[in-house]
Every structure is written in C-alpha cells, then in structure tokens.
C-alpha cells in the first residue's frame, strides 16, 4: 500500500471547496506519456493553477501503473523546480470496477472515479458505495456518475446521451457518500461531438436544477473538449483526414465553471493539438527522425492550449 501523501499529492476535497466558493473549475487533463505530463505541469505552474492529472484504464495499460505513479511523484517535484508548488491530484478516470479502483488507491492515487452509470440505478449505488467505503479509509476522494455521455473515449463508449435525472441526485449522493458527481447534460466523449448544422448546446437548465437539489456539492463535467476548428484545419492541412465536428462552446463551459461545476475534463483537445504539431513537423521536415524534434513542438503546443483553457475557460489561474 502506497499513500498518495507520501508522493506529495493531494485529494480533491479542499481544492473543490475553494473552487465552489471562487466560481471556477479545476482542470482535469488526461496524460499517457512524459510530454503530456510536462505540458500539463508547465501550463499549470505558469498560470498558478491547481490541477488534476487524469489516468484512464487505457492509459494505465499503455504506460504501466508503476511508471505512472513515479511520473505523478515526479510531477510534484517538477512543479517545485519550475518555481511553484501547485496542488496536484492523481485521479483514475472512468474506473469501471471495485478491483480497478482499489488497485489505484493502493498504488498511490489520491482520487478515483467509479463509473457505474451503465448499470441499473440500484447496482450503480451499491458499487459506488463499496468504492467509497474503501477509498475513505485511506482519505481518497471518490467521483460517481449519474447519466450516460454519448461518444467514444478509450474503453468508454455509448451511442446516445441519457441525461442525468435531477430527482435522483440527492438519493444517490446520500446513499453512496461520494465526494463529487459527474453528470450528463449534453457534453460527450471524443472529438466528434456535434455534426455541422447541429447546435452544440449543453443543458445548463439541468445543471441549475441539480445545483438547487445539491447546494454546495461538487459537480463534474466529462467530455468537455471544444474541438478548436483552427487545430482541426491544421491537422487536415498537413495530411490528416478528420471529419467535420463541433465541440462544446467555451463560453458554455465558462458559464458552467461559474456554477457548481468544479472539475472539467479535457482530453480530446489536447490530442488534437499534439497531432497538429507532429503532422506539421513531418510535412515540413520529412527527413526528421529524432522523436524530440516532433514531440517537443507537440508538448509546446499542448502547453499553450492548456494555458488558454485554464485562463479563459476554467478560470483557475492564480488559484493555487
């Protein structure tokens, strides 16, 4: 058993409480490799923002759980080297079983998500409660989910939205003891959220109704990439073949961040930014074969994207 506290990490309880009072949201950025982690820490140190490092079960398989643990510990030291000791959470994104959540807790994660949203309501409650009981013994925070997001991200896939039902949230939170709740209000996983012609709109009315029923309780938005059209155009300019797609408008996310939403997950936008930078290098310098010469620019583009998100979308700059 490794305690996250020994790694220099924090759980989400205190930073969520501050975000709720301050009307901003904490960035939750997914990472799978060193360059992504460097970009996240550089962006958040430079903007003095707390951050949640998210690891999906797919990332855990890709990068190895032992390496991920030491990378997270290294991120804490790296932030100090860069000159600012920002709060860093290591969070399991979309854990789908008690065993996976337990393993992550035992390996030094400070926060886990148990996603039982695909199960019947009572089974979701039972599974979430089981994870909460184990996690809280080790002062690890737990995120649950009600409602189903459409789209595809790693192993998580659904054909269509099932909006969170506000009338269920109080019962779910009281029965499970979760520390935060991911809701479905129209955001979706992946880069292909809305087709051209569709109006991209999240159901802020559902969010506000949930706020009324759970005053002061931390709410989480998944699938909140905005799919920047300039980045998509750059990918396609340099040989990509991405379909037309529209993401979640940043002004809607900013409105959500000013409410009870205190954690916003952003993954696809980062993937797009890195891909655009790599394709540009390969197109302009086809003789290049040194990974540092294309992963370095990818890291730099990702850092600038994340700084923009922190300052203009989440409002978490200067909140560390």
Integer count of domains:
1
Order of helices and strands: HEHEHHEHEHEEEHEHEHHEHH
Overall mean pLDDT stands at 92
Can you count the beta strands? 10
Query: Which parts are unreliable, with pLDDT below 50 for 5 consecutive residues or more?
Result: none
According to CATH, the homologous superfamily is Aldolase class I
Task: Give a structural overview.
- This protein has 320 residues and is of the alpha/beta class.
- It has one domain: Alpha-Beta Barrel (TIM Barrel), CATH 3.20.20.
- It is 48% helix and 15% strand.
- It has 12 helices and 10 strands.
- The strands form 2 sheets. It has an 8-stranded parallel barrel, surrounded by 10 helices.
Topology summary:
Blueprint: H1 13-22, E1 26-30, H2 34-46, E2 51-56, H3 57-63, H4 65-82, E3 88-95, H5 98-106, E4 111-114, H6 121-137, E5 141-146, E6 151-153, E7 156-158, H7 166-176, E8 180-183, H8 204-213, E9 219-221, H9 229-237, H10 250-257, E10 261-266, H11 268-284, H12 291-314
Parallel strand pairs: 1-2, 1-10, 2-3, 3-4, 4-5, 5-8, 8-9, 9-10
Antiparallel strand pairs: 6-7
Helix pairs in contact: 2-4, 2-12, 5-6, 7-8, 9-11, 11-12
């Amino acid at each position: 058993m490794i305690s996250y506290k020994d790694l220099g990490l924090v759980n989400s309880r205190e930073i969520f409480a501050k975000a709720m009072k301050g009307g901003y949201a904490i960035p939750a950025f997914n990472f799978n490799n060193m360059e992504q982690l460097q970009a996240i820490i550089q962006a958040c140190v430079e903007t003095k923002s707390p951050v949640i490092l998210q690891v999906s079960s797919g990332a855990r398989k890709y990068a190895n759980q032992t390496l991920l643990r030491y990378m997270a510990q290294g991120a804490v030291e790296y932030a100090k080297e860069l000159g600012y000791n920002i709060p860093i959470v290591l969070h399991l994104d979309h854990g789908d079983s008690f065993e996976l959540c337990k393993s992550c807790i035992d390996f030094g994660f400070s926060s886990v998500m148990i996603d039982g949203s695909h199960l019947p309501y009572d089974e979701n409650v039972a599974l979430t409660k089981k994870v909460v009981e184990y996690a809280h013994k080790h002062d690890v925070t737990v995120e649950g989910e009600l409602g189903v997001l459409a789209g595809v991200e790693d192993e998580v896939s659904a054909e269509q939205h099932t909006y969170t039902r506000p009338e269920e949230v109080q019962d779910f939170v009281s029965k499970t003891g979760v520390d935060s709740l991911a809701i479905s209000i129209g955001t979706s996983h992946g880069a292909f959220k809305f087709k051209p012609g569709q109006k991209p709109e999240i159901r802020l009315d559902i969010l506000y109704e949930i706020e009324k029923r759970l005053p002061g309780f931390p709410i989480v938005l998944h699938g909140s990439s905005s799919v920047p059209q300039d980045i998509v155009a750059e990918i396609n300019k340099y040989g990509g073949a991405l379909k037309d797609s529209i993401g979640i408008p940043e002004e809607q996310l900013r409105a959500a961040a000013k409410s009870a939403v205190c954690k916003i997950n952003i993954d696809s936008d980062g993937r797009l930014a890195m891909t655009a930078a790599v394709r540009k290098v390969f197109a302009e310098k086809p003789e290049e074969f040194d990974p540092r010469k294309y992963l370095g620019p990818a890291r730099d583009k990702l850092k600038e994207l994340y700084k923009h998100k922190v300052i203009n979308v989440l409002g978490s700059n200067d909140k560390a």
